[in-house]
Write a structure and sequence with these properties.
single chain; 500 residues; mainly alpha; globular; membrane; amino acid transmembrane transporter activity; Putative amino acid transporter; transmembrane
Length: 500
C-alpha cells in the first residue's frame, strides 16, 4: 500500500466529494475544460437521439415472438421501469452537474468500489449498445438497395455467426460518428437535432400508413405466450430505452445543467414512450404477430406490403439509416464522456481524459472508443449485443435509484433543482423494477455479465486502485471537500461558453 493511501476496504468505500466533482468541472483536465454550449433543446435531442428508434427499428422482429400482440404492453412495462429510474436521474443530474452520469452519482454516494462497477457496466452499456444499433444499419441499407434490385452480399453486411464475414455498413456508421464527434460537440448536437426531427417524422409517417391497414383481430389472443412472455419481451425491449441518460453525461457541456438536465431527461422519456407504444400498436394492427418471427427491418416491409409502393420503402429505409446514425452519434458521445470522468479520477488511463485545446473534445479517447466499437459492430451478432447491453444498463439504473435514497438521508441540506416525487417509494420501485427485468434475462446473458465483471475487477486491481485520485487525497483535504455546501452556480456563470 502506498504511503498515505487508505487500505483496500477503506478505499472501496471512500466516496468522491461532490465538491471535488464541481471543482473539476470548473477547472477541467489539464487546464482545458469542456465547452458549455448546450441548452435544454439540445440536451433533450441528445436524449431522444440516443433512445428513439433502437428497439422499434432494430429488434422489433426479435421481440414480438416473445410477447405476441402484447408487445405494446412490454414496451409500456419497460418504459415504466425506465421512467422510475429517469426521475432519479433527473434529481441526481441537477444535484451533481458533472460528466459521468450514474458513475459520478454512485461515486458520490456509495464509494469507489461500487462506482467502478457502475462505470464498468456503463462501458458495457454504451459501447455495446452503439455496436448493437449499428448492426441494424445493414438491414436498412439492404432494404433501400432492394428498391433498385440490388443487395449487399452477406459476406460484407452480416457478422460472423450470421452468415457473413464483417458488417461493413455498421462499421462505416460508427466511424462517421467518431469523426463528427472529434470535430466538436456543438456541431454534433445540431446535426443530431436535425436527424431526430427526421426520425420522429418517419415514425409518425409509419403510424399513419399502418393504421390504414389496422385489424383489431390481430390482438386476439392478447397473451399467447402468457405473462412470462410479456416479461421476457420487456427485458429485451428495455434495450429500446437505453440512452435517455445520455443527456446526464453532458453535465459539463450544458449552459445551465442544474435546471436543464432534469427537464431534458423527463421530456425525452415522455416523447420516446409515447412514440414506442404507438408504433408497436400500429405494427401489430397491420400484421399478425406470427409474421414478425425472423423478419428483419419489419417496419419497412409493412410499409411496402400495405402501400405496394417501393419508393415509400426507400424513403423510410433511408430515414431509418439516419435514425440509427443519430443513436450511434449520441451514445458514442456519452461513452467518451463517461471514460473522461473515470480517467479524471485515475481509474482508467489518462489518454481518455485529454481534452483538445482546439476542439474542446476528448479527441484521443473518442478515436480509441470509436475504433473499438466499430470492430465490435462489424464482428458480433445483434442478439448477444442487445441482451448484454440491457443487463449492464439495468444494474447502473438500480444504483442511481439507491444513490437518490442515500443522498436524501445523508445530505438533506444539498439544494436540489428537481426532487423525485413520492419519495422514497419511487426510487425503491425503480430499483426493484430493474432487478425484476434483470432476472428475466437468460442464463447466457448472466454468464456474459459475470465474465465482464471479472475482467473489470482485474482492470481495477491492476490499474485503477493504484492510480485513484480520490484515494490519494489527504484526510484533511478529503474532509474539507466532503463538508462543503455546493449551491447552484449563479446563472450568468452557467451561461458562459468556456474557452476551447
Amino acid at each position: 500500500m502506498q504511503a498515505g493511501r487508505p487500505g483496500l476496504a477503506a478505499q472501496l468505500l471512500r466516496r468522491k466529494p461532490i465538491g471535488q466533482m464541481v471543482r473539476e468541472a470548473e477547472t477541467g483536465h489539464g487546464g482545458t475544460r469542456l465547452v458549455r454550449s448546450f441548452g435544454v433543446m439540445q440536451l433533450t435531442m441528445i436524449s431522444v437521439g440516443a433512445t428513439l428508434g433502437t428497439g422499434i427499428l432494430v429488434i422489433l422482429g426479435e421481440s414480438v415472438p416473445l410477447a405476441g400482440p402484447a408487445i405494446w404492453i412490454s414496451f409500456a412495462i419497460a418504459g415504466l421501469a425506465a421512467l422510475l429510474s429517469a426521475v432519479s436521474y433527473a434529481e441526481m443530474a441537477g444535484l451533481v452537474p458533472a460528466a459521468g452520469s450514474s458513475y459520478s452519482y454512485t461515486y458520490a454516494t456509495m464509494g469507489e468500489g461500487m462506482a467502478w462497477i457502475c462505470g464498468w457496466c456503463l462501458v458495457l452499456e454504451y459501447a455495446v449498445s452503439v455496436a448493437a444499433v449499428a448492426v441494424g444499419a445493414g438491414q436498412y441499407v439492404n432494404e433501400a438497395l432492394a428498391v433498385f434490385g440490388l443487395a449487399l452480399p452477406d459476406a460484407v453486411s452480416q457478422p460472423p455467426g450470421d452468415g457473413g464475414l464483417v458488417n461493413i455498413p455498421a462499421m462505416v456508421i460508427v466511424v462517421l460518428a467518431m469523426v463528427l464527434l472529434v470535430r466538436g460537440a456543438k456541431e454534433s448536437a445540431w446535426i443530431n437535432t436535425a436527424i431526430v426531427l427526421v426520425k420522429v417524422g418517419i415514425l409518425a409517417f409509419f403510424c399513419a400508413v399502418a393504421f390504414t391497414a389496422f385489424n383489431g383481430g390481430h390482438f386476439e389472443p392478447l397473451l399467447p405466450m402468457g405473462a412470462a412472455g410479456v416479461s421476457a419481451a420487456a427485458s429485451r425491449v428495455f434495450f429500446s430505452y437505453i440512452g435517455f441518460d445520455a443527456a446526464s453525461t453532458a453535465g459539463e457541456e450544458a449552459r445551465n445543467p442544474k435546471r436543464d438536465l432534469p427537464r431534458a431527461i423527463m421530456l425525452s422519456m415522455l416523447i420516446v414512450t409515447t412514440i414506442y407504444v404507438l408504433v408497436a400498436v400500429a405494427a401489430i394492427g397491420a400484421r399478425p404477430w406470427g409474421w414478425f418471427d425472423g423478419t428483419e427491418a419489419a417496419l419497412v416491409k409493412i410499409l411496402e406490403e400495405v402501400t405496394g409502393q417501393p419508393w415509400i420503402a426507400l424513403v423510410f429505409a433511408v430515414g431509418a439509416v439516419l435514425a440509427i446514425a443519430s443513436i450511434v452519434l449520441t451514445v458514442l458521445y456519452g461513452q467518451t464522456r463517461i471514460l473522461l470522468s473515470m480517467s479524471r479520477d485515475g481509474l482508467v488511463p489518462g489518454v481518455f481524459g485529454r481534452v483538445s485545446h482546439r476542439t474542446g473534445t476528448p479527441v484521443a479517447g473518442t478515436l480509441i472508443v470509436g475504433i473499438a466499437v466499430a470492430l465490435t459492430a462489424g464482428l458480433v451478432p445483434l442478439g448477444a449485443l442487445a441482451d448484454a447491453t440491457s443487463i449492464g444498463t439495468l444494474f447502473a439504473f438500480a444504483l442511481v435509484n439507491v444513490a437518490v435514497i442515500y443522498l436524501r438521508r445523508t445530505r438533506p441540506e444539498l439544494r436540489r433543482t428537481f426532487r423525485v416525487p413520492l419519495f422514497p417509494l419511487t426510487p425503491i420501485l425503480g430499483a426493484l423494477m430493474c432487478v425484476y427485468l434483470m432476472a428475466n434475462l437468460g442464463a447466457e446473458t448472466w454468464v456474459t455479465f459475470g465474465v465482464w465483471m471479472l475482467v473489470g475487477l482485474a482492470a481495477y486491481f491492476g490499474y485503477g486502485r493504484r492510480h485513484s485520485r480520490v484515494a490519494a487525497l489527504g484526510q484533511e483535504e478529503y474532509r474539507e471537500l466532503s463538508g462543503r455546501d455546493f449551491s447552484p452556480t449563479p446563472a450568468p456563470a452557467e451561461a458562459t461558453i468556456f474557452h476551447q
